[in-house]
Design goal:
The complex is a heterodimer of chains A (about 120) and B (about 120). Chain A is built from no helices and twelve strands. Chain A has about 120 residues and is mainly β. Chain B has about 120 residues and is an all-beta fold. In chain B, strand 7 and strand 8 form a beta hairpin. Classes of the chains: A mainly beta (about 120), B mainly beta (about 120). At the A-B interface, strand 5 and strand 6 of A face strand 5, strand 9 and strand 10 of B.
Chain lengths: ~120, ~120
């Protein structure tokens, strides 16, 4: 069975400092992993995805994530936070060999940026 | 391309009323999904479809029905609305492909905010 855990429901950082949003997953197979961002009152937008190619994945807006199989983690990072990064972030795990219903969303991490 | 669109954007219903939410996509995606989003719970899958004329239940299907008469449209119906169905509803679509290539990267609509009083 698959599952995903976002370890922090809320993260607050100062503008210009690094961002770390943590995600652990559980999967019986080699998973596909995604990070989505949701700005207030908007739909979800794909930030980046891991699909068994390079373990360090670069996404939009300076975000990147590293797939660590030994730690079953897929943490999202950004070197320097910007005010526009304030949003909700979702980690998602899927099994590329499973049915369309096996897409598991984490509960989300709200990122706040302090001026 | 408009991507994924949803109508309406907002709706207020009284308990017991019915309504239909419409989702449309212009990317020729096979798969379409309906989710609800509630505070602290992420997104939960209501129903999904893997192609025109097909539908299947997700994690929280009770109280909802769906139809996929055309490939580009996916309708979500509430036959008798209840306050517990107050939520934000998101539609999404994705590509399909042979097993192992179907990464299920989803494209989301802007959402419909539904309040049931």
């Amino acid at each position: 069975a698959q599952s995903v855990t976002q370890l922090d429901s809320h993260v607050s950082v100062s503008e210009g400092t690094p961002v770390l949003l943590r995600c652990n997953y559980s999967s019986s197979y080699s998973p596909s992993l995604f990070w989505y961002v949701q700005h207030p009152n908007k739909g979800l937008q794909l930030l980046l995805k891991y699909t068994s190619a390079a373990t360090l994945v670069k996404g939009i807006n300076g975000f990147e994530a590293e797939f660590k199989k030994s730690e079953t983690s897929f943490h999202l990072t950004k070197p320097s936070a910007h005010m526009s990064d304030a949003a909700e972030y979702f980690c998602v795990v899927t099994d590329p060999y499973s049915s369309a219903s096996k897409i598991i969303f984490g509960s989300g991490t709200r990122l706040s940026i302090r001026p | 391309n408009a991507g994924v669109t949803q109508t309406p954007k907002f709706r207020v219903l009284k308990t017991g009323q019915s309504m239909t939410l419409l989702c449309a996509q212009d990317m020729n995606h096979e798969y379409m999904y309906w989710y609800r989003q509630d505070p602290g719970m992420g997104l939960r899958l209501i129903h999904y479809s893997v192609g025109e004329g097909t539908t299947a239940k997700g994690e929280v299907p009770d109280g909802y029905n769906v139809s996929r008469l055309k490939k580009q449209n996916f309708l979500l119906g509430l036959e008798s609305a209840a306050p517990s169905q107050t939520s934000v509803y998101f539609c999404a679509s994705s590509y399909s492909g042979p097993p192992g290539t179907d990464f299920k990267e989803q494209y989301f609509g802007p959402g419909t905010r539904l309040t049931v009083t």
